[in-house]
Amino acid sequence: MVGGGPGGLTFAHVLHRHGYPVTVLERDPSRDARPPGGTLDLQEKMGQVALDKAGLLPWFQALSRPEGQAMRILDTDGAVLRDWRPRPGERANPEIDRGQLRELLLGSLEVQWGREVTRVEPGGGDGTVVHFADGPPQRFDLVVGADGAWSRTRPAVSPARPHYTGVTTVETSLDDIDTAHPGLAELVGEGSLGVYGVNRSLVAQRNSGGHVKVYARFRAPLDWHAHLDLADPEAVRSSLLAMFDGWADSVLGLLRHGTAFAHRPLHVLPVSHTWTHVAGVTLLGDAAHLMPPLGAGANLAMLEGAELAEAIATSTSTSTSSGTGAAGLAELDATVRAFEETMWARAAKWAQITSAGLERLVSPDPAEAVAVFDEVQPS
Ligand SMILES: Cc1cc2nc3c(=O)[nH]c(=O)nc-3n(C[C@H](O)[C@H](O)[C@H](O)COP(=O)(O)OP(=O)(O)OC[C@H]3O[C@@H](n4cnc5c(N)ncnc54)[C@H](O)[C@@H]3O)c2cc1C
């Protein structure tokens, strides 16, 4: 397994649960080497199914925040257009902090930290060779690339590279919002706040512990920051405030009080990305189907990880006579082929939905964004 994100860790957790050996190769030098990122909503029919297969659903239910499903939409003058709250007991899409999810999935797994994969070389019947930035290559029966958007495993099966969508996100955050900025805390509420203007939006999402992530999203050429020092927070803040000039002062407080700023141009793989099957190597998650970040990517990655692990465990336990010899490897290969077909069909559907969604959420007509919300969340 290359990559210890939601997809890779779910795969490893489920395989480990079934008693099978799995090696997780992760580039990060340690489990807390970088901030884990914002909150994730895990859907009842995808991420939560995966957690059930991993035996972790009760822990997720204890940690997740159903109230985080709340969604408020404002216009750029600050007027409330929609204010949706989940019904008591509603658990279709509860939120969980990425850090909490990662801790759950890590459990007692052994991860090889600081193992940056540089290249994966399918080797026919002799196993697949993994090359590292540091240390000698290693050979495996199956390499599963769950190494995200800029996967180093992907070139072993496909020449596809992510392309820029024309939409960029700049992310910032506010700490201890309830005490430090009670007015903004009230504005954001228990879940998410979305404000949509012409070709730009501001979205704020509450994480646990009074932490709020803010995403400024806008259409711009990839080099829009050519004359801006992205490492200078004050310069980035001023540039964003100029870009969102004229929006309600209450809303702009989210940018004014943001601490650090991270630049994230949105890239995607082609919708319906598939490849000619290669024995001994496959992909899942963003490595296979990077799409706009609209609530599906982690869910898909986790479901795929859980399904592939379960399919491998089932096929190898029903063909114990095959062992790990040629017949066993052929069985493994057939299982991976079937998994790929299922993954491709489902991911293509979501890639279409999220690509169309991004077009409408960052569009010349802000009413489109409200229409998207009404389709997803009819009251
Ligand atoms: C702002 C934002 C909000 C989002 N919200 C949601 C949401 O609410 N719900 C949802 O379903 N999805 C959401 N997504 C999408 C989701 O984050 C991704 O789709 C998901 O993280 C993909 O999981 P993954 O395991 O495939 O890859 P990743 O999470 O990218 O993990 C890849 C792992 O591989 C490691 N790695 C990379 N390269 C190498 C290498 N060469 N060698 C070894 N290791 C390597 C990385 O360090 C990382 O740990 C959001 C995304 C963004 C940006």
Automatic annotation (TrEMBL):
Q: What is its EC number?
A: 1.14.13.-
Q: Give binding positions for NADPH.
A: 34
Catalytic activity line of the entry: a tetracycline + NADPH + O2 + H(+) = an 11a-hydroxytetracycline + NADP(+) + H2O
List where in the cell it is found: Cytoplasm
Any idea which UniProt keywords this protein has? Cytoplasm, FAD, Flavoprotein, Monooxygenase, NADP, Nucleotide-binding, Oxidoreductase
Is the keyword NADP assigned to this protein? yes
Residue runs in coiled coils: none
Pfam families of this UniProt entry? FAD_binding_3 (PF01494)
Q: What class of enzyme is it?
A: oxidoreductase
Cofactor(s) essential for the protein: FAD
So what family is this one in? Belongs to the aromatic-ring hydroxylase family. TetX subfamily.
Task: Describe the task this protein carries out.
Answer: An FAD-requiring monooxygenase active on some tetracycline antibiotic derivatives, which leads to their inactivation. Hydroxylates carbon 11a of tetracycline and some analogs.
UniProt remark on domains: Consists of an N-terminal FAD-binding domain with a Rossman fold and a C-terminal substrate-binding domain.
Database matches in HAMAP family: TetX_monooxygenase (MF_00845)
UniProt name for this protein: Flavin-dependent monooxygenase
- Say which species the protein is native to: Catenulispora subtropica
